[in-house]
């Protein structure tokens, strides 16, 4: 039995790297039995993902033929949904055709179903038509995200593994689904990998900050949250001796954390109190090591927050979907530590930071009590998958 990951994508989003590596650790299978469709093979090899998962990339001839086929068909097709299906067909069919009767599809990506109808549906329905098993692996989805197409495909998964209890409860109550289990995100089981720390850690306490265009509403700081980020950095610089380390976590086109981080760094670099981590040179577990050394962490990306939680760093989550609240709730983190970036109220970020700062010892102690057993529970998935 092999497990196929058609939506692995690549480690340009360090969360994708984390899911692949964490899944391999949990299942304890040889890399030959875990096969991921990779869109950037060179990068994933540099990050070491290929040591955990066998990576498959479409051959160049297939990419060229698929692109030509797509362009030709799109000239005659005007329906957007048909074009999307055509793209999925070109991109996924050869990979999925490698699956044999005992193989299982793992639909990863975490919050993929929080967005529009997408490849989660296509790949699941494709393997179902062949009578193969599929698992929605480590998912988050809110009630407002449901569509008729998503509801239908959710019923077709052999197993749904929710990574937080809010998603599991919603799926049980709204859709009456029975095949649901709840365990931590697979990335929780990964250990930090020691690297040389930036010089700011030699000076004093460091506040780690991960920002994204998702929570800011664009690649600028014009939103209410963006303005409050600037105000908070000013306050940390003026009212404390702490340094700020900007930690990009996603480096894909159109959602590159380095863009907004660079804006902040350029604005404050003359203070010598704001620093920018070269995240591109580090893999997920190395980034986790850096985050683990922070006094407080403020994070937009879920898997950056998971690194903070797993290493017991008191944190503020800049949430934009059910996953942020769900994971924080399961870890018994106070609601005051999660900021809703989509329905943001001015002053909420400073309030959350002040709460964490005032309760830093208690929050760290709470995480130290919860995290060991919480992480350990993820390994129960191994037996569940073996019985599937």
UniProtKB/TrEMBL annotation:
- Give any GO molecular function from the UniProt entry: transferase activity
Domain of life (superkingdom): Bacteria
Q: Does the keyword RNA-binding apply?
A: no
Q: Name one Pfam family in it.
A: PS_pyruv_trans
Q: Name all Polysaccharide pyruvyl transferase domain ranges.
A: 13-321
Q: Which UniProt keywords apply?
A: Transferase
Protein name stated in the entry: Polysaccharide pyruvyl transferase family protein
What species was this sequence derived from? Bacteroides uniformis
């Amino acid at each position: 039995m092999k497990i196929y990951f058609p939506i692995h994508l690549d480690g340009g989003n360090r969360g994708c790297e984390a899911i692949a590596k964490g899944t391999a650790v949990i299942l304890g299978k040889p890399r030959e039995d875990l096969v991921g469709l990779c869109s950037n093979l060179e990068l994933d090899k540099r990050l070491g993902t290929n040591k955990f998962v066998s990576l498959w990339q479409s051959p160049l001839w297939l990419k060229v033929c698929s692109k030509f086929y797509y362009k030709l068909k799109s000239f005659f097709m005007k329906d957007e949904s048909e074009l999307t299906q055509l793209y999925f067909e070109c991109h996924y069919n050869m990979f999925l055709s490698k699956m044999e009767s005992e193989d299982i599809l793992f639909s990863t990506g975490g919050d993929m179903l929080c967005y529009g109808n997408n490849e989660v549906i296509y790949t699941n329905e494709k393997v179902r038509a062949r009578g193969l098993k599929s698992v929605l692996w480590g998912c988050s989805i809110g009630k407002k995200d449901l569509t008729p197409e998503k509801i239908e495909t959710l019923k077709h998964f052999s197993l749904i593994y929710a990574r937080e209890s809010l998603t599991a409860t919603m799926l049980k109550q709204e859709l009456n689904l029975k095949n649901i289990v709840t365990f931590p995100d697979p990335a929780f089981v990964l250990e930090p990998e020691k690297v040389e720390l930036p010089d700011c850690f030699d000076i004093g306490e460091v506040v780690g900050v991960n920002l994204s265009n998702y929570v800011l509403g664009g690649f600028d700081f014009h939103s209410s949250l963006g303005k409050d980020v600037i105000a908070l950095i000013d306050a940390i610089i003026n009212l404390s001796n702490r340094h700020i380390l900007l930690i990009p976590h996603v480096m894909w086109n159109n959602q590159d954390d380095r863009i907004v981080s660079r804006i902040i760094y350029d604005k404050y670099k003359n203070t010598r109190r704001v620093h920018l981590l070269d995240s591109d040179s580090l893999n997920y577990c190395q980034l986790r090591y850096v985050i683990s050394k922070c006094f407080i962490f403020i994070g937009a990306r879920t898997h950056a927050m998971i690194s903070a939680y797993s290493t017991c760093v008191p944190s503020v989550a800049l949430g934009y979907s059910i996953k942020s609240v769900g994971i924080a709730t399961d870890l018994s983190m106070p609601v005051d530590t999660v900021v809703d970036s989509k329905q943001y109220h001015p002053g909420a970020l400073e309030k959350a930071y002040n709460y964490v700062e005032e309760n830093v010892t208690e929050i760290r102690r709470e995480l130290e009590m919860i995290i060991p057993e919480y992480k350990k529970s993820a390994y129960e998935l191994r037996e569940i998958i073996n019985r599937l």
